[in-house]
């Protein structure tokens, strides 16, 4: 680090890369040094906008000595390779979820981060979510989990069908939607067993398809059942999403209007609590600056627990 600033390189030049670059530009503990992208046009434009070096080859960028950390903003199937290589080149790493496209890559990345004493964090925002932390506080007083359920139904293919509706790039839908799995694993712990089923309409040799149903059920080591259902490209007027955490002492419910606790005696809204960091990137930067390895390693373990569920779908 130079003059107390974390010198950052970004791999990728899409929407998420642009968001990170814009936010980093207003952060006084960061210097955005380089951007790498296989898209010469968008990559060079982004680098020029934020006065950073553009490097088409991310392997070459990792060899630069004036970089402390790497932010990975590429398609799911390349996360693991770039994360591992970045750590091997003694860089701290922040990656968009999922941690990796395969469990093996994720485990290797976690091992290298420990051996190299580098900060590795995945972009799951729940550790800095005011609502998620309030939910954590509530369930501590509600006893044993019985079942945690989630359902999402969507009528269309979304804005990025080539990514979501492709098994080779993104893996099963559960892996693309791992941000629905991570918070449940974070609250209720590791899965002891996993069962999954999937249906894909018009699946072709390239891994693309037009419609899907993906269902995952787990049994948590600490007790209770977890269940997720995702279905996309289906005949429904508008998207629907429902969460339920059923515990001995009450049921936490969210059907789109915010989280509530429901019991026989009534319904109570959950008030968000205060958190220390405004974003998960700010948390990662703090861990880098303060060499907080324990916090980052704990999160990496949870990210691995989440992909142990998602990749079995």
UniProtKB/TrEMBL annotation:
InterPro entries: Gfo/Idh/MocA-like_OxRdtase_N, Gfo/Idh/MocA_Oxidoreductases, NAD(P)-bd_dom_sf. Residues 6-124 form the Gfo/Idh/MocA-like oxidoreductase N-terminal domain. Pfam families: GFO_IDH_MocA. GO terms for molecular function: nucleotide binding. PANTHER family: BILIVERDIN REDUCTASE A. This is Gfo/Idh/MocA-like oxidoreductase N-terminal domain-containing protein. It comes from marine metagenome.
